[in-house]
Amino acid sequence: MTQEELQALAVNKSVDARGTACPGPLLEAKKAIGTIGSGDIMEVLSADEGTKRDIPKWANKKGHEYLGTVEESGFFKIYLKKG
Amino acid sequence: MSKLCMGLFSGSLDKLTAAGVILSGAAADDMDVDVFVLLQGARAFLKGNENKIDNLAEASFLKDEFISSLERLKVSTWYEFFEMSKDMTNVKIYICSLAGKIWGGEKLEDFNGLVDDICGIGEYLTSAEEADIHMFI
């Protein structure tokens, strides 16, 4: 997905984990994905560099689709589609 | 479902924190986890001791920097990591019976609420044999 397509996604759940260091964002993502339905889109906001590799790998293992990452200033947004 | 077996020998703040972070990663992955708390570790799990642990196993001269960094980064305490992991996945915590006795803990009620049971070394080795990942901290 392009950056524009990611930005234009209709997000069903947004998780702001910018206040926490690893493993905080992963744990927030894990908790939040249980609250949405299959096919729903979730974004995770994080400022922890480790999250960029961690969440896509985790999503892949758990059967969710990693859609891409958008860089903002001082943080980034990771987009997932629940499997 | 994959399984993690952890031998937790250390009762120091740095290693307990590392163990807690690893456990929470396993919890995010829905792994089954067995933690076997050995010698020094068992002291940290005695009831009421969770907030008394403030020694580091390595680089003890950096203790103040370590503790203030954990606070600055809003890192959960080791106890909170263990608690969260137990809420999220199947984590069982066993105290080695010899280790418990060394620090004055003979029965399950002598230990904090995280502990599931007291066990012998055979159970640890059987768990390690069956696990996909085994680590010793």
Write up this protein:
- The complex is a heterodimer of chains A (83) and B (137).
- Chain A has helices at 3-7, 24-33, 51-62, and strands at 13-16, 41-46, 65-71, 76-81.
- Chain A is an alpha+beta fold.
- Chain A has a four-stranded mixed β-sheet with strand order 1-2-4-3.
- Chain B has 137 residues and is α/β, with parallel strands linked by helices.
- Chain B has one domain: Hypothetical Protein Ychn, Chain: A, CATH 3.40.1260.10.
- Chain B has helices at residues 13-28, 39-44, 63-72, 78-88, 97-102, 121-130, and strands spanning 3-8, 32-37, 91-96, 117-119, 133-136.
- Chain B has a five-stranded parallel β-sheet, with helices on both faces.
- In chain B, helix 5 links the parallel strand 3 and strand 4 (117-119).
- The longest helix of chain B is centred in the N-terminal third of the chain and has 16 residues, at 13-28.
- Chain B is globular, with a radius of gyration of 14 Å.
- Chain B starts with a strand and ends with a strand.
- The relative contact order of chain B is 0.26.
- Classes of the chains: A alpha+beta (83), B alpha/beta (137).
- Chains A and B meet through helix 2 and helix 3 of A and helix 1 of B.
Helix-strand topology string of chain A: HEHEHEE
- The CATH topology label of chain A is Translation Initiation Factor IF3
Query: Strand fraction band of chain A?
Result: 25-35%
What is the residue-averaged pLDDT of chain A?
95
The largest sheet of chain A is: 4 strands, mixed
CATH homology superfamily of chain B: DsrEFH-like
Report the strand count of chain A: 4
Side by side, the strands of the main sheet of chain B go: 4-3-2-1-5
Q: Name the poorly predicted regions of chain A.
A: none
Distance between the termini of chain B: 23 Å
Ends distance of chain A: 17 Å
**CATH architecture of chain B, please?**
3-Layer(aba) Sandwich
The proportion of strand residues of chain B reads 15-25%
Tell me the domain tally of chain B.
1
Shape call of chain A: globular
Q: In order across it, which strands form the biggest sheet of chain A?
A: 1-2-4-3
Helical stretch tally of chain B: 6
Uncertain segments of chain B: none
Based on helices, strands and strand pairing, what is the structural class of chain A?
alpha+beta
Number of domains of chain A: 1
Structural class estimated from helices and strands of chain B: alpha/beta
